[in-house]
Amino acid sequence: MEEIMKHIESFIHSDWVGMVIGVVVIMGITLIVSRISTRFMRKVLHYNERKDLPSVSIFVNIVRGAVWVIGICVMLSTCFNVNISALLAALGVGGVAISLGLQSTLANLIAGLQVSLLRIIKPGDNITVSSSSGVVHDITWRHTTIRDTDNNKIIIPNSTINTNALTIHEPINDVSIDFVVTTDGSHLDAMADALAFEAGKALQGVCKVTKPVTVSYSGLLDDGFSGSVSFKIADSRDIDNAIDAVIRAIAPLTRASYDSDLMQQTRGEIAQAQAAKKECEKNHTCSSAEATKTSDSVSDQGKKHNVSWWKRVRLLHEGRKNHKKHHQE
Questions:
Q1: What is the pLDDT of residues 162-178, one digit of tens each?
Q2: pLDDT digit string (tens) for 316-329?
Q3: Separation between Cα atoms, residue 140 and residue 217, nearest integer Å
Q4: Are 106 and 120 in contact (CB under 8 A)?
Q5: What are the counts of helices (DSSP H) followed by strands (DSSP E) for the chain?
Q6: DSSP letters along 204-260, please?
Q7: CATH 2.160.20.80 corresponds to the domain 119-169
Q8: Is 106 exposed, middle or buried (0-12, 13-18, 19+ CB in 10 A)?
Q9: What is the distance, to the nearest Å, from the Cα of residue 218 to the centroid of all Cα atoms in its chain?
């Protein structure tokens, strides 16, 4: 038993055990820092997307790679006593051979940085490169991902975009969804309002709407009426999610009668929204942006988000001034 304990003690106090523990600790810290850095970078890119940098993966990849390079250098220096300066000097001497071996990779990386930093293309753009067309979904350190009209994913090397003719089309932001309602023809307006209201409500948590939701009828059928729900979104990458959300929202109404419980519930919600809008206008207590959101709840649930933060504050201040003036009078 004593010999076993001696072996265990010598194993614990051996140099290579401490080295392994050091490697595990440093790599664990590097992993945590890498995840925190990439999450922070994604949030920065998301909030800064409309100003300077597009929200693409290439910048996240660079940050992640830099964190791991630093972590590996610290691990080599601390655990294996490697001279990092000498290692970098050796890599500098062999830089020509490395650059030749990684020529295509470096070309894609540099091309990706160029198209991203110069904002030549960004997620949501409708582009054509060579014979490939589609909407840009992401730009990584090696390739750009686009989706065509059939929802096929197309991978294009960044160097191809940088060296070939690039066509940037108008964004595909207009959405039209066909439907058929089986209600009688005496309440078509009420049905259109209900469909628009439910579609706008469904779009609120999915994407930003830049054009109000409208409903129009286009044909007479034996068992009902055909029509379409139309709207425009800010980012064409959200088209699939927007279409899915709207279809799920309006599907029950297309088979509901005017006197059904679902229709009555929707009409009640519309009436509440309109009453809230009138109350705001009467008391002058809501800003223009809020009044617009309430009045367009039947047709436009996303317009409020298009107003800048400063403009919302200014409009709210004006609304309070009008409210005070109204009471003084």
A1: 889 999 988 778 899 99
A2: 445 545 544 444 54
A3: 44
A4: no
A5: 12, 8
A6: TTT--EEEEEEEEEEEEETTEEEEEEEEEES-GGGHHHHHHHHHHHHHHHHT--TTS
A7: no
A8: middle
A9: 33
> Tokens 């309440």, residue?
187
Predicted structure pTM score: 0.58
Single out the residue of 224, 139, 209, 204 nearest to residue 174, CA to CA: 209
Q: Which residue has the tokens 């078509």?
A: 188
pLDDT in tens, 192-221: 999 999 999 999 888 889 888 999 999 988
For residues 209 and 197, give the distance between their C-alpha atoms in angstroms, rounded to a whole number: 13
Residue for token pair 């290692």 = 87
**Residue 228: what pLDDT?**
95
Within 10 A of 231 (CB to CB), how many other CB atoms are there? 27
Helix, strand or coil, per DSSP, at residue 191: helix
Mean pLDDT of 250-269: 90
Q: Which two tokens stand for residue 275?
A: 């009453």
pLDDT band at 312 (very low <50, low <70, confident <90, very high): very low
Q: Where are the beta strands (DSSP E) in the chain?
A: 126-129, 132-139, 143-147, 153-157, 166-169, 174-181, 209-221, 224-233
